[in-house]
Design a protein that fits this description.
This protein is α/β, with parallel strands linked by helices. It is built from 10 helices and 12 strands.
Length: 320
């Protein structure tokens, strides 16, 4: 069995156990903003809070989270190392870049055909995170992450996505993509990744669970990708998400479904206290509420095991 990189080092793929395939721990879009204008950030307190949340999820039967926090979302490995050292939860980390429209300013003039005309600098950065360690640490990423949202496939989004795709082709690392199902842009994502030679069976089309458009979801799945049913506790109600999952299972797509919350322990996306106002948006909701609801809806324990344990393992190892 292959080994998987985590924030504490490699573990056997069979040690991943029950896995939430799209989560975050700390998301911070602007450290400068938080440092200057927020009074709800204290590093030690937030690390304690994260450890407590992960330990609670571990007691509830979650063994691993895939932390989809990358550049643009405030990923800071020293914080994650401190958290990982104090919890038994496996934390599998990502590399890549998160933006909805433009590349960050440090890449605006650097790259092919730009003022500083060099090969795409993002791809080797991502490859280094996967093969050597993130940002000079010995913590290696295990998968890639990028995003496309309501603005669609802007030039900046396409540039990032192609850089991520090339890193995937070079290293074999799988990809998770934040998408905007209401505009069906998971299909645009698959087109670009396919053009770069990515194996779509190693891709999670994230936030697919936000859609009840079965035809759209089936089209994504028929191209080979996993569907991220990964915002339980936020927005669209759990019964609707479960109904969509049930329909997809009935149509034969069980082995392409992964489940999660897309939750976090701290974010500057929301005002102070914003997370506390979302009582189901946390790592507890699936093990305590969603799994019983799935069983009541007729989803079997074997099917839950496939979505919760086997499929994330297949995804992260590239073994379908």
């Amino acid at each position: 069995m292959s080994s998987i990189q985590t924030a504490r080092g490699p573990v056997g793929a069979d040690e991943l156990g029950n896995t939430l395939a799209h989560e975050h721990i700390i998301t911070m879009t602007s450290m400068e903003y938080v440092a200057n204008y927020r009074d709800d950030w204290n590093t030690d307190e937030r690390i304690d809070q994260a450890v407590a949340a992960l330990d609670e999820a571990k007691r509830l039967g979650v063994d691993t989270i895939f932390d989809c926090t990358v550049l643009g979302l405030g990923r800071y490995v020293p914080w994650i190392q401190r958290i990982a050292a104090r919890t038994d939860m496996n934390i599998v980390m990502a590399t890549g870049l998160y933006t909805y429209r433009d590349v960050p300013l440090m890449f605006h003039t650097v790259g092919p055909g730009l003022a500083i005309d060099i090969d795409e600098p993002m791809t080797p950065l991502f490859v280094n995170d996967l093969e050597k360690g993130i940002a000079g640490t010995d913590v290696r990423a295990a998968f890639l992450k990028c995003a496309i949202d309501e603005p669609g496939m802007t030039p900046g989004i396409e540039r990032v996505m192609r850089a991520v795709a090339r890193a995937s082709v070079e290293t074999g690392a799988p990809i998770t993509v934040h998408t905007h199902p209401a505009t069906r842009n998971g299909l645009d994502t698959q087109r670009v990744l396919r053009e770069e030679g990515v194996d779509l069976t190693n891709v999670v089309i994230g936030h697919s669970g936000d859609s009840t458009d079965i035809d759209y979801l089936v089209e994504l799945a028929d191209a080979g990708s996993y569907l991220g049913m990964d915002r339980f506790g936020l927005g669209l109600g759990a019964p609707d998400r479960i109904a969509t999952i049930t329909t997809l299972i009935e149509r034969g797509y069980l082995e392409q479904l992964v489940i999660s919350h897309d939750a976090m322990c701290y974010t500057d996306f929301l005002p102070p206290g914003g997370l506390e106002a979302l009582p189901d948006y946390n790592y507890r909701f699936i093990p305590t509420a969603v799994l019983p609801m799935m069983r009541e809806a007729g989803i079997t324990d074997e099917q839950i095991d496939t979505m919760f344990r086997l499929n994330p393992q297949r995804y992260i190892t590239g073994r379908r």
